[in-house]
Design goal:
Elements: E1 2-11, E2 14-24, E3 28-33, H1 40-47, E4 54-59, E5 62-63, H2 69-75, E6 76-79, H3 91-96, H4 111-123, H5 139-152, E7 157-161, H6 169-184, E8 188-192, H7 196-202, E9 205-210, E10 213-218, H8 220-223, H9 226-233, E11 235-242, E12 245-253
Parallel strand pairs: 3-8, 3-9, 6-7, 7-8
Antiparallel strand pairs: 1-2, 1-4, 4-5, 9-10, 11-12
Helix pairs in contact: 4-5
């Protein structure tokens, strides 16, 4: 359970987040949406403890900033937007770095670590390239490998910033399915997403940010309305709802 109370944060002298309060439950895939520059990345970086903030961020009723670094690394995993790899490692070795928070000094990986690495590679669809040098991969392939590293932590909370931005449609769907499976295993996934139709199709819940504040939170059909598209995204949009599926088609700027 992630609880955020009265969270505010600034970058340089600019206030980016303003009094954000959220409660996000387990076994959920949560999409963090909103236009460019409204604070989505700042929010997940604050949750990860990477930037200063005002307010409270609690994971299972424990303040995140009070967690020892190693314990924090076990409890949450973070994949930054446009992450890269610059070292000539095999895919498998790079994914294995996700197990470091669980290993004592000078301790070899155990069977549970190997199982976590294999599971992560399957979820990110990179198992067939496990022996390849990451520097020989395309940008989209490296993005999936780095996602696998984050998944290998098996943290209760996974924070990912635009995980499908560099991917083709086939692998976008595969990654979203993998994140759904990760959440269904009893964990919480919070993903910054710009593709609203993908967010609506796969996420259990959406949080719509605007001007550093929570504009709407709830099921995709409750958040992705014509009114919210006009108020927040400043576009006219056709919204088609079929059961749980929501299709958003922007038509014109306001």
């Amino acid at each position: 359970m992630l609880t955020i109370k009265n969270l505010s944060a600034s970058l340089s002298s600019t206030r980016v987040l303003r009094d954000v309060s959220l409660t996000l439950g387990t076994k959920k895939f949560i999409g963090l949406i909103g236009p460019n520059g409204v604070g989505k990345t700042t929010l997940i970086r604050a949750v990860a403890g990477l930037i200063p903030y005002e307010g409270r961020i609690m994971l299972d009723d424990v303040e995140v900033i009070d967690l020892a670094p190693r314990l924090r690394a076990q409890k949450m995993s973070y994949l930054a937007q446009a992450s890269e790899s610059y070292w000539p490692l095999s895919v498998e070795r790079l994914v294995a770095l996700g197990r470091l928070p669980h290993l004592a000094a000078f301790t070899a990986p155990q069977a549970a670590d190997a199982a976590a690495i294999t599971s992560a590679m399957k979820l990110a669809d990179v198992e067939t390239m496990r022996h390849r040098d990451v520097l020989t991969l395309s940008g989209g392939e490296r993005a999936r490998v780095l996602l696998a590293r984050a998944l290998a932590v098996e943290a209760p909370l996974l924070l990912v910033d635009e995980p499908v931005a560099a991917l083709d449609p086939f692998h976008q769907l595969g990654v979203m399915e993998g994140l759904v499976s990760y959440a269904a295993s009893g964990r919480t996934v919070i993903a910054v997403l710009h593709d609203l139709s993908l967010a609506a199709r796969y996420c259990d819940e959406l949080v719509l940010l605007n001007d550093g504040r929570v504009h709407a939170q709830g099921a995709p059909a409750e958040v992705l309305t014509r009114e919210n598209m006009a108020d927040v995204y400043r576009v006219h949009a056709d919204i088609k709802v079929e059961g749980r599926a929501v299709t958003v088609i922007p038509k014109a700027q306001l």
